[in-house]
Amino acid sequence: MSAPIGLPAPALGRAGVPAFPQVALSADAAPFTPMSADGPQRESLFDTEKHFSLCAAKLRALRPDSAQLREELNLLFDQLLSENYSRTFCPNINIRPEDVCTLLEHASSLVPLGQEHLVIKLCQLIHHLLNQLKIIMDEQTLDELVNYTANALKVCSTWTHSDVLLALSTVVYGNGHWCQQRLSSLLGEDGVLMLYSSPSQPNMELRRVALTCMANICFRMPGQPPLDDKYRNACFRVFLNTMQSPKPPDTDELFYSMVIQAALKGLQCCVSGGKWKFSGEEELGSVLAALKRLMFQGVPGVSVEWPAVLYPARLPQYEGLSALKPAEPDKSEPLKETTVAGKSSGNKKRKSRGKGKKTSREESRVDGEEDDGAAVPLPQRERGREGGRGEGESSYKPSDPSLYPSWKRNSSDSEFSDPEGNAQSKLRLYHCRVRQAALHCLLAVVKGVEKRTLYGYWSFFIPDSPVGGPPPLTLLTIILKDPSPKVRALALQVLSAMLDGSRQFLAVAEDTASPRTSYTPFSFLLATAIRELHRSLSLALLAETSSQTLTQLIKCLAYLVSNAPYHRLRPGMLSPLWKQICPYVRHRDVNVRVSVLTLYGALVTAQAPLPEVHLLLQQPESGSSVTGSFTPQDSVNWRQRDGVSSPSRTPVAHSQHSSHTHSPRIPRTPGENNSAPPWLLQLCVSLVTHPREEPSDSEGAASGGATTLEPSPVRLEALQVLSHLVRGYFSLAQAYLCEIRQVSARCLGETDPSIQLHGAKLLEELGTGIIHQYKAENNVPESSRVPMNQVVQFWSDVLSGALNGALQNEQHPTLQTSACDTLSSILPQAFAQLPDKTQLMCITMLLGLTYSENYLVKTAAVRALGIYVLFPCLREDVMFVADTANTILAALDDRSTNVRAKAAWSLGNLTDTLIVNMEGVGVEFQEELSDMLLLKMLQAATRAAADKDRVKCNAVRALGNLLHFLRHSQLTRPAFQRPLEDAVRALVKTVQSEASMKVRWNACYALGNAFRNPALPLDSASWSCDAFSALCHVVTSCKNFKVRIKSGAAMAVPAHRNCYGDTKRFICVWHSLATALENSEDTNDFLEYRYSASLRHTLSQALLHLLSVSQSQDMPALGASLASEEGRNIRAHLIKYLKVDEGGREGVEDEKDTMTESCNPLQRIRGLQQTFTRLKNLKAEGVRKEEEERGKEVVVDFLEDLIKTCEEP
């Protein structure tokens, strides 16, 4: 940057060295490079520190009244400015921040604002020291320097303001919140920054520095409070206005580009500097429109009219044809999007300006911006745009428009002289930086805006229409066409951020059905967008030469694969991608290899098991199929110059001959078939266990050697892919159970904790896969399961190996946690067949780890015990149950919420075991279990029911089981009376609370579970009325239908009439159920409506249950109800219930959604007939005998009519 006009020649500093010129503030500013009188830079760190100390001491010794003060200051400033204090140049430089702060404070007190030349040098010194030493100023220094520079802007001449603003921007960098008391004079309506940053400001240098200063004010360090909204909004409006304003007619393009860069950086700081909310749809659309325009700044051939605002829409909004513009300086053929008013002229022929010539390697590059961005021959670029649609559609037409820039062609094509060429190179560099800044800003917007809001703007950045007509300008255009690898990488980052977390949005995409001709459904548009993303990213993968960009590209593909609903799309998209990325597994760059494995991991987890991926995994050797398919070398790289390939691409060719040598087949045992294991499994095992054949570029030559394993990131990612493969496609991996176990054992035996951790997780996935196979509900044929003897042998080998060391590794709690999870994944049937000493070792280890000081280890151990207590071979062991109960009770008092939540879950499992034993073993088990232990469990669960929702949801489950388990002899003991009442009231309180719905429906289920205990005094207990009242309330008023279902089912549990109390309570229950049945379809939430059929089923069953237990004293009230409008509504629903089979009960997620047993329509009618017979023979007694008889007749007639209606064909 040139010095401001009017400044004198720089004064000479130490040893006659000219003072270093001013440097613009930039986060990416190059380190200061000093000039020395004696030639080379002084390399002595001691001399640099000593020189600073001497100059600082001299300056601190000066006083305002010192003789020759101006000359002394001038000399000292020059000497300080001539030194390079950059930590990049001198990493170990030791200059104390307080010394710098003291120096600058004192210097500001010595330099009067009237001495403008000294003011400029002081401002340059402030920028020089703070920018290179990265000093964090104390509050006093910050206030002094802000005060000084702000006053200088008021007093000094305009020609000094550029340097003053540069110093101010350095001072306020990341300190905006701490100097807000001075911002009113800077950012007010008449503030100097607002004046200089205005689009009407003719001095572009002042405008740029003012915008930079505002950006630094808005910049927020992590952990700092954000800038006040008033000032941040003011800066935001200035930045946006700058981006939207056209370039002044007489302004140099370079200076204008620097102004736009500053505005983009400022906008990025505003959006990412704390919680930011756009004021409305218009403002967000304006920002996105400006950013989209600047994404293509300086790209030759882009000449379109950009909309000022982007409005959220489902269909794409294409840019219109611009007005006539002067020809571009490079006279390249412009690519114009010409879709206007629904008409396309993209197929019109254009006159060719000459035959295309072969490209040559560009001899000069600008600051390394385009090191990897090679030019593309026109035919190849057109194939890149139109490829993937069949050979007949990929023919080249020379007259087709292209974004191929003429400045990348052979020098004979250029019409510039050397000076003009240098100017054009510099302009291209600045345009490239603008595009980078725009994409950085867009990335901040994408991350800061709610996903749901952003989905409306997808079509502006991701094409969602089939290929044809003029291609829209989107992120894919940049990824495919931009010559700068940095810009391409940034566009991929933005696309990745948009795809990340988009699974719910993309879930509606579907194109399996036959296409409609009348209209295009939104699901088809989304499916087309996914296919276009696949096509474009695959083309980019073929052409990319930069390793860094290639890494980002493959990661972007992984985000796409992770979020796209391939089970709803036509198959065929994943197979080409699977084969295309195969050669990159042997890429020389470690990051590329890791990203490829990440993509393979995404492929095997996408809606697993996916038929297409299942077939790909069954291919015995991927390398052989890839050899016959396309590879990155099969087509000319459209960024390649003179056929010279980038060094980063050389291993790709090597992959074709190394895929066999480096991925040996896993040795097979004699009894197994000869089919080759999946190639991906072989690859991952090879990467984890086999030495690397040759060192990669990223590792360096020093790490080479025949015995060198793959770098740790590659091995870790390979282990993760193995885990994903086992989880999603266990049926393919189970044949190699022994080999995978050996890989895990090797990992557990290594010293790297990360490798050990992933080895333990792989074992856990294997155990979980075996458990899923043996679950009855999965209906896996016995012939397809892993044989039980192999499962037992597998766990015997695991438990006698390195897993024990991982369990005892206290230095790495995360590893211990994973080892506990591995123990919990043992198949219960296999655990029963393990040797007794092995079983005892597992139990003892877990019991001991529950007392670990690390909460992660304790949580995992408590969870594992909660699983073990369900094992059939352990649940009848009273001593084990008692030990586990005491351990869980201790964990329930832990200060960690995670530990308490998992302890409550384990307590729920343990009480489930009590119920199973009560029903299976009988009273013998109940008598062996200590009454004191049961009392402690009851009290602990009651306390936990008042904890957070994560703890409460399982605590109430345990309370229900315990109240069901207690015997009459225990309930009548005085010690149990108060805890019993407290437990029931805790459940009632939870039912009526504002807790999460899961907690409330668990509480309703728990009350119903307690009502199953015949020893519970429901007829006489004081809490009984509260329990029924709470259930009656939620069954009629709760918005959540699952809570209503479980409360209605709970009220149908008591088996005897006396459990319901007096007639008043009984009829209250009846009316509540009838009202709930009448309102069973009243909801505004569609997600709840799907449970309405299950709700009606449960309520109808509960009403019939009440009729079946009713007595003569209930007949008057029941008769009145059935004779009214309420009765007619009940009749209609009961007819549906009695006739409809269980298939109508959609919405029931598990067997616990209803307390009552399911039965078919014939059984229901048979039960209704029994109720009819009982009530018909019921004798009325008491004072209201006649009234009871009349009521009974109404009820009997109602039932008789109901039976006749249901028996009709």
TrEMBL record:
SUPFAM superfamilies xref list: ARM repeat
Residues that span the membrane, as ranges: none
InterPro entries, A to Z: ARM-like (IPR011989), ARM-type_fold (IPR016024), DUF4042 (IPR025283), HEAT6 (IPR052107)
Chain intervals with Basic and acidic residues compositional bias: 327-336, 380-394
The protein's name: HEAT repeat-containing protein 6
Start-end of Polar residues biased regions: 622-656
Domain DUF4042 residue range list: 433-613
Annotated stretches, region: Disordered: 324-421, 622-676
Biased composition (Basic residues): 346-358
Pfam families: DUF4042
Superkingdom assignment: Eukaryota
Organism: Betta splendens (Siamese fighting fish)
Gene: heatr6
